[in-house]
Please model this.
Amino acid sequence: MCLRGAMKTTKNTIPVLTLKKVVSLRKVLLAVYFPYKTKIKELIKNIGGYYFSNTLKTWYILHRRNNLMILKKNEGLQKKS
Model:
């Protein structure tokens, strides 16, 4: 599943978020992959509940329906006020 974020990396390019279901340490996780040199990292952190995995080299959250819905709700990745 891919979601398009609102952060532009160049004038005409919108980075793609790739979501992947992974298993790590016997837990099912939702991993979020995206180009590192973007502001998406800060926006993902602002959603809350996400952690960075050095092993997976990506941000992740427990794979739950409500966590996926929260990410979809923030699909534009707007900053919270």
The helical segments are 40-47, 65-73.
